[in-house]
Amino acid sequence: MVVAAVLTALLYTLLLLIPNSQSDNDKLSQQLDLISQLLARDIELVRAGLVSDFNAAPERLDENWLNQQVELSNGSELKLNGLVHRVTGKLWNVSAGFDRPDQIPRKLEPKHWLCQPSCRLLLSVSRGNDELIADIDLQRWLLIQGNKLGLSLNLAGATRASLEKLEASTIEQNTGLYFSSRQSDDWDNASDTVLEGVPMTLSGQFSNPPTIAIHWYVLLSLLILSLLAMALLAHLYGRRQLRWKQLFRQLEKTLSAIESGNFDVVNKRLVGSMQHAPELARNFVRKLAIYGLQDEATKATLAQISNDKDWLAQHDGMTGLANRESFHQLLQQTIHDADTSALLLIDIDDFKEINDASGHQIGNDMLIKLASILAEHVALPYRSARIAGDEFAVWMPGASLEEGEQMANKLLEASRQIMLAGDNMLHRLSLSIGVVVAPEHGNEFDVLMTRADIALNYSKAQGKGRYASLRDPDLEGYLLKQRFMYSRVHSAIRDQRLALAYQPIVRVNDGSVSHYEVLLRIEDEVGNYVSAYPLIQAAERQRDVGVLDKWVLNQVLTLLMQMRRNNQNHRLAVNISGQSMSDAQLTETLLQRIEFSGCGPDLVVEITESAALENIGLTQRNIERLQALGCQVALDDFGVGYSSVNNLLSLPFDYVKVDGCFIRKLSSDDAVIPLLEFLVTISKLRGFQLVAEFVENEKVAQQLEQIGVQFAQGYHYGKPELGRLSLDVSDDVQAQPGQLQQ
């Protein structure tokens, strides 16, 4: 075994010694491509700035103006080395820092790349007979970007040219002009040149390539660990052998006691024996049957030990607490045994964010910590259970509401002492608790759990880290409101008080309508149609939101089929809730209806970020099935949750809708523009389109167009309007209020 361990260590070390060149090269190539695109973008920005400044400058530029422009560029990453002003091809003024202006070719392209002998980029902009030439400091930009990413960057060109072809002066012809490659053999190139038509290619390598020497330390460490592991295994093996010897001696004594009829010591010895060897326990049961053992206590012990599967069926494997099924049975069996009993429903605050930020292992540790708190404070006859995910419950037979609140306070105090270290952060255990009592708030499991869930949600709404009970008059009003709203779900459908509103989603570059988002509205008491968001929330809490999803989808598919019969070309975007997308049976029903209608190509299905990232695998399967029916799929409300770009890139969305909380800050928060520019770059690489929500004025619309966001939605382009889509308007027209008929 020691030899096998050493060989394993050597094998792993050899694998470490083989550089993962393919992976490193792929990573370097992708980084060079992105940096090349960034450089091209920055060059275009500098050139656009030169055009703007040149057009606004005086007719004849002096040296002070040129020097001032150069100094203004010092604060940016892509700065100017110097400026030259020429009039009808003749040198007029030169700023400080411009190297050899007399050797600039007379005729320049807008972007000119030359080496004389050091490579340099000249940007030329014209205003009538005037010409402004800028010498761009590329090496400084490459140094800054390389330091950020741990790369050495350079520019290479392999095309040769002669000054004679550039109509240069005699001095320039004598000097000679050529392009020379600055790329080393071990450097990688970007896929494309930086600028179209200019033989300027970005090349680079990692600044600190991995060395082989460190792996010898890895080898030595692995060998030492292998030897320690073998020593530990030998020690554990010896202890295991000793335990088995002790077990057999104990079984022999137990068997002797049974043969002699001394049952007083059998129970005690059986417990120790069976717990150490379940497999042996089953053989021992058969042995006991041979002797016709009739002792009731011993039979009960044997039954308990041999029924491991029954125990697992009633308990949560991670925490050891009762599971939902056994908790349900316990509650139903004991709810009528006392005049009053308390139920606590417990939820870990921001549990999903803990998992996202530090991984599922930290989340599991948090669950185990909470289970230990419950085990410490909840003693018989009270019982605790893990209901689902991060939800726990405590059942207190015979307890009043006041005693339930006291228990909630104890658990909250104990939880505040728990902190776990995650990835570069500390996570404090924070609980929200809902407290109800039976029979005052119900005498059935489902009823009590629903009331406790409402109290729990109310405690979260009040700020988390606290409890709420139905004695609170505000909570009672909250409960009545929830009941009222939920009662309206089915009645609104039955009484035809639901309606659809449509808001245009337009192309930013020309304002033409791409498609419409469908929004649910409900008629209020005075006949006005208002947002149905509270209704949707109430349905989600009762886990009945699928009723609304099916109604909306039916209305949309019916409308799309009518428009097809009238040769219409509208596309509609409809929201499907996360609950519906995670319900396999309901999802199947929705997909069948889309397939039957044949309107998949006219449908955009929007899935919220939180629902999409709750189960990546399920979301990807649903997206692929929707796209197979011709539908497009949009990720809604991107940025309000805790998703990562990695998750975003792993799902094949057609659209990503940037939440309005970012768009509203576009004019006031400088950090939003780089974020949107980054998303635009990613969207181009991954093939999805960006939609900006809550665009409310022309200034924001112009900023979005400059950044490159493709689509937008908001009051600037059109408010949600009730009615039906006009049957004589196609999609590719300007967004106008008259497109909807009331």
Automatic annotation (TrEMBL):
Record domain GGDEF: where: 339-472
Keyword field contains Nucleus: no
Keywords, comma-separated and alphabetical: Membrane, Transmembrane, Transmembrane helix
Membrane-spanning parts: 214-237
Keyword Membrane listed: yes
InterPro entries registered for this protein in UniProt: Cyclic-di-GMP_PDE-like, EAL_dom, EAL_sf, GGDEF_dom, Nucleotide_cyclase, Rev_trsase/Diguanyl_cyclase
EAL domain ranges (all copies): 482-734
Protein name per the record: EAL domain-containing protein
Listed GO MF terms: cyclic-guanylate-specific phosphodiesterase activity
